[in-house]
């Protein structure tokens, strides 16, 4: 039927809406149709379409089995799945197993009969094509987004959901979930299985031959690739249900610059569709789309970062996101990839070269205009509803679909196009919003837009000779031709193409002036210039055609033939044969007829007045719909092509007046037609089905439009009759079928009672399925009186597909209100075939009930009794007239006649007022008996009894707003009482807001507030109270508190806090917010408490928040929280660089002298910094027993001298202390701000220690927290020096009497309670408090005893809870020189103990330092067999000693130490080999051993007592078995018995006696030995003896001391065994 076709654009945002079979046929869904393409050749061709769905096609899939690849399935939003034969293009079967909208479809590659589909509710339906069986399952109650059947097993199905979840289910077990794949964070767009067939289970299809890369897809289920909106591709193993790899989309540069992933048209997550496809025979290569339309080929087997490459080059890629990909391997072996995109192009790629083979443009809207260029032969311009203009080179030999798209500056539908008659590439266009512009088709410049707009749609553009005023002037001053436009408002404007910014002129003024017309001209609907430019024909909305002569536009004649609006006019083609026919004018209107008039006589010899022509030269009347386009053939004499709403195009022989050819290839209304300028047997048509067809009249089999359709006129005449019949035939309560409801007048259809709006091909379509307005109507409203836009495909494009606003229809009603099955070919289930296809009978017509069509129900009478008496017999009515006359004119009424009562009730209406009241009473009784109390109320109101009427309504609970409005007429009290009664009634009806409003009307404000409050309408009650009551009213506070309590109970803590704040309860607000223990909540709570004046609570919460932040290593956040409280607590204190001041900071010039004044902050006084006389000499330091000799003290090189530390006046130099410029001289230390400063100092120390002791990376930290090298030396700076420097620089703490206050605050700081399970950060926090105490004591400078104790506690705390390594590291950091007496070389601080306890603490620290030194020395001299283990456990060292007992070291292997080194070792070992501590440790071990034996003995006797009923032997054996493992004392005693001989059995008394002796021995030892621990002396003795075997550093005296200690105190079996080698 057709040669070439530009099809409709593939549907957007569908996971699998296109597919390709093995024969090279591609199918894709576009709107409600499936188009079939032949992609096997070098260029594609459209084979046909599959029409039948009523709504958008959402899925399409071919059968993959050989011999059945012509079978395909499609799903639609209408809830159906249809099965087709693609070769014959016929419908085979369908099923409607879904209740929701189908979103995904796939024909199983492993089973030729299984088709799986899923809907948006999560229901999956499995349909077997051969049997018609259908089953469904519901694996997950979430929105399904995509699905894919496994090619390896028909049982395996992958489901992707909107929430990012992927399920692998077993179809054979009713959707049993095998694996739940988690990893994506957003909706799953696409799923694709690996193509290689792995080892199969029994019952599966045979295994394919292995490929070259089969190892990649080995397993029972293969691999699955998924693409998600989270911009990642994941590859999963379906055997294990785990992810194999994750691919992140690359950000590629878009053509023309910019980054595609950021803000391109298709880039970014907001507009991303990530489609993945695994090509056949390429198991290690995966294809995916990218941000801006690029296609990426991933090499899954490649190594390195660059695992991807981009397909195509230059402009070959898509310009917007890609939705679908499918591949096919042709018989020639060539593998092709087919892609569809948002840019409305279908591209074919060669996977071998990764280059684009061909591109097929598609259309996203109805085609309204076609125009061939008169200069560039074969260049066809087409425009439509997708807001783009396409220039198509129809004569191109290399690319039959070579097009160029123009879209810049266009914001509406293109409704008219025309090329310039002589200027190449100049294309004029008109739009739906009334704009006129000119494009240069050979440049990329935006179009020129005329400054003069039409008020409505432009229906015609044409170039013609200039008319006044543009025609005035010389040849160089006037344009060669003008651009004319006709809009829907009925005006024809003349534009100057040289200057579109100038105002266009309306030709109506010239027509009236030239022809002396005084009346209003009929609105114009179309016009056509005669090719020679001498005459213009103008069509009008009243059906007339006026012909004018240029340039004055003198009227020549008027054609009065049509009776409806003129839609199109066309003069005879100037190049056609028989030029004598050049005066033929063809006109088409909404009356479905084409008239051809010969205007030769009227144009050559015009009459005066102008002639009126009422007879046509030829009448062409075979069409059954509106005529929308005309085109004369330039090759044949008097041959005319016409298009119509009847979906066909007709070719006529005008001279014979008969039809020659009828083209029926379109599926909807045909809107425009053009005859090919080069081929006499080619015609081009554009239609409402979003397609442009090229067809040959010689190949068409029909000669006339299809019969059976009623002409438009008959449809109009029978329209009202059909509506009335439908309204009368519909049963009461019966709902019309979905999609078939039509309005009785407008003829527009809605779906489910609403306008049907769908997005197809990315456009929002406003549909009126039938009853569309005709072209060019005057009414500016859209279908059904309004314009509706709905964007489903994420672009706000306003489109009209079937319900386009009618073109030029004068009648505001639609032309065809009833359903026309042929006009709805795209939605009625028929198949688009050459012969017309099947037809489905129209559904019964439905309509909404209209008052003017249905019989109105008469209102109930207020006076039913008197009304009923008016329907009596004629005689009774005449008698009433006589009786009434007698009563009126006689002094006395007739006997027994009482007007208004009894048989004369009706006379009360015509008599006096008492009679009327009597009639009202009886009428009221009748209303009450009939159950119409409302009528009683009205009657009482009429009689003036307002109070009685209101009382009646109140008693029956039927007060309403109308009665309440009448209540004031009864007086103030009546009104107030009525309002109160109405309020009670409204409360019973749960209309509390309305009740409160009425209470306000009677000035009962508090009652209204309480009413809302009592019904828990807190928000409304507070709004009312806040608007009416003063701010200090206690009612308002009570409302806030009540609402806060309710919100807190429901868990809305933030809202509750706002209520407490508004109520002035800042304490409660802070407490509520702090219930959520996260850092933001605690920070906000502390701020609220601070602002509310609750400083204590603010500090408590701030400290909680800071601790939480510190635990998560957010040190900056912790300091900020505490600093905020510190600043707020200062109450006017000015902080400058961490220094607090009560006044503005004075300059240093204002301070006369520092002598005799307290020292400035951060500048220590002369008393703080020891002078050279105060620093003890080396002789004094080394004279003590605890401090090594001068040889052990590190050199003082690099240590600043006293002159560098302090000046002669006690002030540090500028190099060591921050500048004092701007520092006040009246403050010694910053105020503590209610204790916040001391907490900040502790957190500062904790941060410094955490950076030095732990390996965890902080979330945020300060620059000063990173340890730096000491001045003049290398290695890390001691933490105490770092702390002091940071305190001085950041917090302004350097010394003075204010330190005492800080110490007091620090004493109240709660230390962390440590245990063996305490985490590292908690231990560091505890150590930080201890070290902060030590630094503050150092700064105070009174004595060193407390300082030593604080340092010892800091080092001992980690060791006490099992963190030995942390303790050792901390000790090494504090004393990097190995000398505990030197506390700081930077600040020249030497520890000099005074009290005994301080000396013991210092000795303990020195002992642990020496302990580490000793072990380091031992491991450095130990043989390789024993130096492998780098850890040093206390007990296992003896065992390690046994391992090296037999090792001898030659003298040549050991380097002899000098006498000085030996002396140093002796001094360090002397501290470790302390006999008092050895005795204390041995006694402790004995006590522990006795306690263990006592425990074992007690347990033994307890079990013996419990099992006394059993035999003694069995009891003993069981007791022995159970005693094993309770302790090691029994085993140890047995070991001793083997070495020392038999011992007397231990008893409870003997063990108790031993415990008493040991306790006495412990009591005799000094408290300093018990408090300040030392390393294990026995262990150190063993190490010394081991070291003596491998080195000469150990003196004989030291070895003797060690052996003596082992003999006395090595009491445990392990140590005794280890000591044997040294005590022999």
What would you say this structure looks like, in words?
With 1624 residues, the chain is α+β, with helices and mostly antiparallel strands. 30% of the residues lie in helices and 21% in strands. The protein contains 39 helices and 69 strands. It has a five-stranded mixed beta sheet, covered by helices on one side. A four-stranded antiparallel beta sheet has the order 1-57-56-55, with no helix packed on it. β15 (156-161) and β16 form a beta hairpin. The protein is extended and about 150 Å long. The N and C termini lie far apart (117 Å).
Number of helices: 39
Query: Which stretches are low in confidence, meaning pLDDT under 50 for 5 or more residues running?
Result: 197-219, 255-269, 727-854, 1131-1232, 1424-1458, 1522-1541
- What is the percentage of strand-forming residues? 15-25%
Tell me, what's the shape? extended
């Amino acid at each position: 039927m057709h040669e070439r076709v530009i099809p409709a654009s593939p549907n957007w945002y569908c996971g699998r809406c296109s597919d390709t079979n093995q024969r090279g046929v591609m199918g894709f869904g576009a709107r409600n149709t499936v188009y079939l393409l032949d992609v096997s050749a070098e260029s594609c061709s459209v084979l046909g379409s599959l029409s039948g769905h009523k709504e958008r096609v959402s899925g399409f899939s071919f059968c993959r089995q050989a011999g059945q690849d012509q079978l395909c399935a499609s799903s639609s939003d209408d809830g159906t799945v249809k099965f087709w034969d693609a070769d014959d293009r016929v419908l085979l079967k369908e099923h409607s197993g879904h209740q929701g909208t189908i979103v995904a479809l796939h024909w199983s590659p492993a089973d030729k009969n299984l088709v799986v589909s899923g809907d948006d509710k999560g229901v999956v339906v499995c349909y077997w094509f051969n049997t018609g069986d259908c089953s469904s399952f519901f694996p997950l109650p979430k929105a399904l987004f995509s699905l894919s059947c496994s090619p390896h097993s028909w049982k395996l199905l992958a489901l992707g959901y909107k929430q990012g979840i992927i399920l692998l289910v077993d179809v054979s077990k009713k959707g049993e979930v095998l694996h739940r794949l988690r990893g994506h964070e957003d909706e799953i767009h696409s799923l694709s299985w690996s193509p290689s067939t792995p080892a199969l289970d029994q019952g599966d299809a045979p295994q394919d031959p292995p490929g070259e890369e089969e190892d990649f897809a080995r397993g029972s289920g293969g691999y699955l690739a998924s693409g998600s909106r989270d911009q990642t591709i994941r590859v999963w193993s379906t055997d294990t249900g785990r992810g194999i790899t994750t691919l992140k989309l690359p950000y590629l540069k878009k053509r023309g610059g910019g980054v595609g992933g950021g803000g391109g048209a298709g880039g970014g997550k907001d507009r991303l569709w990530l489609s993945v496809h695994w090509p056949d025979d390429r198991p290690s290569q995966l294809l995916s789309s990218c941000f801006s339309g690029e296609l990426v080929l991933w090499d899954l087997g490649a190594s390195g970062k660059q695992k991807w490459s981009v397909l195509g080059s230059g402009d070959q890629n898509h310009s917007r996101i890609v939705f679908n990909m499918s591949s096919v391997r042709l018989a020639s072996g060539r593998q092709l990839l087919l892609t569809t995109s948002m840019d409305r192009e279908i591209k074919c790629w060669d996977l071998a070269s990764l280059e684009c083979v061909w591109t097929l443009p598609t259309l996203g809207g109805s085609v309204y205009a076609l125009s061939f260029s008169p200069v560039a032969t074969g260049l066809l311009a087409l425009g439509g509803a997708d807001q783009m203009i396409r220039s198509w080179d129809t004569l191109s030999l290399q690319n039959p679909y070579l097009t160029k798209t123009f879209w810049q500056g266009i914001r509406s539908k293109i409704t008219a196009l025309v090329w310039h008659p002589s200027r190449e590439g100049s294309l004029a266009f008109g739009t739906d919003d009334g704009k006129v512009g000119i494009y240069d088709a050979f440049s990329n410049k935006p179009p020129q837009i005329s400054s003069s707009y039409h008020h409505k749609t432009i229906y015609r553009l044409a170039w013609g000779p200039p008319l006044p005023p543009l025609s005035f002037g010389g040849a160089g001053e006037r344009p060669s031709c003008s651009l004319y436009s006709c809009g829907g408002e009925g005006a024809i404007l003349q534009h100057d193409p040289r200057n579109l910014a100038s105002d266009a002129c309306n030709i109506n003024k010239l027509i009236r002036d030239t022809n002396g017309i005084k009346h209003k001209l009929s609105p114009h609907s179309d016009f056509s210039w005669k090719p020679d430019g001498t005459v213009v024909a103008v069509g009008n909305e009243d059906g007339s055609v006026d012909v004018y002569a240029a340039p004055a536009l003198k009227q020549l004649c008027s054609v009065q033939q049509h009776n409806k609006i003129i839609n199109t006019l066309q003069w005879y083609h100037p190049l056609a044969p028989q030029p004598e026919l050049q005066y033929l004018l063809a006109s088409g209107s909404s009356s479905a007829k084409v008239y051809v008039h010969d205007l030769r006589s009227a144009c050559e010899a015009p009459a005066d007045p102008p002639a009126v022509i009422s007879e046509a030269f030829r009448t062409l009347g075979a069409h059954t719909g509106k005529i929308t386009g005309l085109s004369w053939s330039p090759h044949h004499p008097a041959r005319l092509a016409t298009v119509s709403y009847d979906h066909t195009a007709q070719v006529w022989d005008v001279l014979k007046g008969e039809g020659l050819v009828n083209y029926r290839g379109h599926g909807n209304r045909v809107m425009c037609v053009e005859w090919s300028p080069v081929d006499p047997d080619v015609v081009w048509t554009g239609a409402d089905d979003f397609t442009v067809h090229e067809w040959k009249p010689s190949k068409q089999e029909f000669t006339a439009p299809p019969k059976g359709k009623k002409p438009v006129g008959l449809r109009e005449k029978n329209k009202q009759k059909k509506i009335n019949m439908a309204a009368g035939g519909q049963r009461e309560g019966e709902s019309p079928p979905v999609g078939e409801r039509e309005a009785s007048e407008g003829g527009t259809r809605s779906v489910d009672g609403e306008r049907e709006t769908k997005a197809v091909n990315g456009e929002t379509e406003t549909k009126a399925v039938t009853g569309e307005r005709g072209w060019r109507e005057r009414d500016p409203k859209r279908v059904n009186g309004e314009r509706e836009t709905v964007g489903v495909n994420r672009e706000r494009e306003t489109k009209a597909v079937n319900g386009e606003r009618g073109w030029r229809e004068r009648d505001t009603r639609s032309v065809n209100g009833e359903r026309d099955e042929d006009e709805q070919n795209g939605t009625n289930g028929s198949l688009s075939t050459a012969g017309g296809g099947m037809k489905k009978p129209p559904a019964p017509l439905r309509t909404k009930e209209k008052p003017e069509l249905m019989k109105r129900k008469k209102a109930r009478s207020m006076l039913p009794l008197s009304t009923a008496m008016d329907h009596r017999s004629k005689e009774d009515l005449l008698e009433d007239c006589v009786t009434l006359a007698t009563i009126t004119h006689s002094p006395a009424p007739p006997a027994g006649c009482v007007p208004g009562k009894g048989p004369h009730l009706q006379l009360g209406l015509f008599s006096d007022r008492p009679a009327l009241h009597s009639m009202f009473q009886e009428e009221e009784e009748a209303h009450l008996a009939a159950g119409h109390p409302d009528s009683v109320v009205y009657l009482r109101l009429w009689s003036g009894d307002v109070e009685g009427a209101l009382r009646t309504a109140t008693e029956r609970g039927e007060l309403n707003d109308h009665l309440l409005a009448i209540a004031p007429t009864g007086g103030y009290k009546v009104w107030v009482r009525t309002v109160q009664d109405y309020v009670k009634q409204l409360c019973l009806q749960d209309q509390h807001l309305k009740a409160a409003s009425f209470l306000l009307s009677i000035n009962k404000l508090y009652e209204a507030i309480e009413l809302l409050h009592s019904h828990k309408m807190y928000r409304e009650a507070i709004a009312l109270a806040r608007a009416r009551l003063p701010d200090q009213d206690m009612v308002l506070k009570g409302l806030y508190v009540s609402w806060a309590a309710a919100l807190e109970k429901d868990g809305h803590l933030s809202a509750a806090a706002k209520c407490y704040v508004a109520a002035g309860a800042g304490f409660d607000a802070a407490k509520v917010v702090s219930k959520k223990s996260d850092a933001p909540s605690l920070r906000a709570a502390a701020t609220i408490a601070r602002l509310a004046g609750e400083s204590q609570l603010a500090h408590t919460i701030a400290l909680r928040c800071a601790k939480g932040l510190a635990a998560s290593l957010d040190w900056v956040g912790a300091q900020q929280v505490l600093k905020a409280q510190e600043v707020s607590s200062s109450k006017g204190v000015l902080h400058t660089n961490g220094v607090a001041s009560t006044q503005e900071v004075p300059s240093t010039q204002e301070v006369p002298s520092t002598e005799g004044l307290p020292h400035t902050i951060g500048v220590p006084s002369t008393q703080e910094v020891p002078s050279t006389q105060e620093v003890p000499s080396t002789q004094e330091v080394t004279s003590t027993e605890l401090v090594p000799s001068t040889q052990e003290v590190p050199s003082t090189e690099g240590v600043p001298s006293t002159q560098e530390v302090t000046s002669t006046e006690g002030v540090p130099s500028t190099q060591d202390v921050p500048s004092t410029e701007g520092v006040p001289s009246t403050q010694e230390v910053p105020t503590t701000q209610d204790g916040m400063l001391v907490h900040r100092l502790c957190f500062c120390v904790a941060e410094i220690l955490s950076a030095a002791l732990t390996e965890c990376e902080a979330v945020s930290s300060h620059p000063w927290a990173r340890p730096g090298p000491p001045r003049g030396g290398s290695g890390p700076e001691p933490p105490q020096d770092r702390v002091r420097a940071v305190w001085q620089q950041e917090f302004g703490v350097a010394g003075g009497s204010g330190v005492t206050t800080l110490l007091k605050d620090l004493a109240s700081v709660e230390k962390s309670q440590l245990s063996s399970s305490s985490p590292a950060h908690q231990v560091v926090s505890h150590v930080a408090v201890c070290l902060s105490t030590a630094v503050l004591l150092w700064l105070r400078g009174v004595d060193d005893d407390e300082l030593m104790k604080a340092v010892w506690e800091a080092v001992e705390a980690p060791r006490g809870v099992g963190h030995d390594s942390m303790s050792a590291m901390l000790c090494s950091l504090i004393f990097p020189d190995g000398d505990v007496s030197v506390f700081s070389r930077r600040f020249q601080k030497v520890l000099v103990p005074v009290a005994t306890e301080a000396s013991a603490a210092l000795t303990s620290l020195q002992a642990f330092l020496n302990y580490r030194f000793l072990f380091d020395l031992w491991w450095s001299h130990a043989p390789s067999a024993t130096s492998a283990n780098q850890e040093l456990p206390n007990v296992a060292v003896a065992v390690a000693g046994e391992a090296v007992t037999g090792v001898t070291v030659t003298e040549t292997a050991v380097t002899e130490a000098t006498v000085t080194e030996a002396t140093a070792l002796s001094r360090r070992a002397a501290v470790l080999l302390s006999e008092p501590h050895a005795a204390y440790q041995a006694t402790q071990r004995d006590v522990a051993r006795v306690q263990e034996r006592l425990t074992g003995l007690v347990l033994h006797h307890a079990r013996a007592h419990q099992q006394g009923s059993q035999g003694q032997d069995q009891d003993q054996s069981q007791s022995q078995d159970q005693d094993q493992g309770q302790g090691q004392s029994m085993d140890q005693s047995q070991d001793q018995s083997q070495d020392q001989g038999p011992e007397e059995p231990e008893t409870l008394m003997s063990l108790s006696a031993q415990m008493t002796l040991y306790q006495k021995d412990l009591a005799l030892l000094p408290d300093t030995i018990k408090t300040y621990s030392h390393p294990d002396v026995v262990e150190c003795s063993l190490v010394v003896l081991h070291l003596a075997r491998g080195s000469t550093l150990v003196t004989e005296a030291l070895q003797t001391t060690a052996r003596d200690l082992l003999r006395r105190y090595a009491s445990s079996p392990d140590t005794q065994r280890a000591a044997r080698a040294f005590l022999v």
